What does this fold into?
Amino acid sequence: MSTLSASVPSDRGALTRAHSANFIETLLVALLLGAAGYCALFVAPTERTMGVIQRIFYFHVPSWWSAFVAFAIVLVSNLAYLRGRNPKWDWLGVSAAEVGVAFVTVGLVTGPIWAHPVWGIWWTWDARLTSAFVLWVLYVSYLLLRNLIEEPERRAVVSAVFGIFAAVDIPLVYFSIWFFRTQHPQPVIGDGGSLDSQMARVLLLCWAAMLGILVLMIRQRYRVEALRWDVDRLRLTAAQSASELSARQGFAMGEGQ
Amino acid sequence: MALARPAAVLLGKELQTEFRTRELLTTTVVFVLMVLVLFSFTFDPTSIESRRFAPGLLWLTLLFAGSLMLHPSFTREQTNDTLAALRLAPIDPTAILAAKILANACFLLVAEAVLLPIFAALYNLHVWPVLGRMCVVLILGTLALATIGTVFSAISSQARMRELLLPLLLMPVLTPALIASAEATAGLFDDPAYLSPQWVGLLAGFDAIFLTVTWLFGEYLLEE
It folds into this structure.
């Protein structure tokens, strides 16, 4: 049960200290997020052609960048788990994948909100949008796969291999869809355009806030996963000893007859 | 060589198991035929339209068929726990995967050989003049389907709800291969027929990359 004591401090003093550290970090990220929101809404200049709706960009773009950071963490954790078989990498992998999927979902929702007034449509099968959607499906199936395997070690190995396949697939998806759609005129999202320096600063502040949320959420999820691993193992051990016991009892009864 | 010999022996075993009953092959051929006919009912295409839809339809149908057909390749071993026996053999575990990938590619290719003339007749396509190039696309696309499908069937066989899980894992990862095969096939039915090096290159690259990834990481799926 070393993992259990490592993930949850056992004595009361340590628990309180961990809680207050958590509280301070959460407060810092909340303040950062507040500042980012204020700057995105009031400090950054209004875009000339698109108007106010362009401000969604300060949340849309950083959530995509954060999602890529999260998926990079997933890939590194998957490789590290297969090499060393330390369950901590598995916990980190699933935590980052779940948070990454959340950020992709934010990106997929904020995109159409912006696109509807600007392009006049909610969605188009453009290269970037389509690959974003495939990316979301890939990691959702990674999470689904994990839910369907009971034994913790097996789940970790199998999902790590799937995670590596998914990560290798991402550039291929992007290239194929990009080739596929280049014949068609496509809406350009900021490509080749230059960003106002004030806008760039606000964008970076927003990204910092998003990364703060990313770290907090991954850490929280990591603790939950560590506990879940222990619970799964206990459950398996209990099931095994129960079946052993019933087998022994059956054997004893057979002898009695 | 250390990989080739055991893989060849295992491939023989896979082919023998299948050709004794021909369960997979007959089911796949009938399934694909049924889907093709149902598609033509639901869309009721004119001859020009059907020529436009046909390549995408062919590959989508093969993908569906593959996701059903590749599923037994590991679950079949579970009934008598024969995978454990294979694992005990003093061979590289990658050989087991390689043999299964090749066997599945063979089954799919045999099914395609039966289906292609019927498909050409149903959708009024002139396959004969482009047959050689069509075979290149079919082989590369089928290899992609068989590689990913076999590995993911090893993954899904270890989970609950495996029948549903395999297509779910397979389809998003195969998106690039599906697009490339459908586009390359569409080029063959253009006037003049044209085999796009871009799409064939993408398909070949897809195969090479995922065969390498399977070679590097596949054996983890077979450990006990």
In short: Residues 1-6, 183-189 of chain A have pLDDT under 50 and may be disordered. The longest helix of chain A spans residues 197-256. Residues 11-185+195-238 of chain A form one domain.
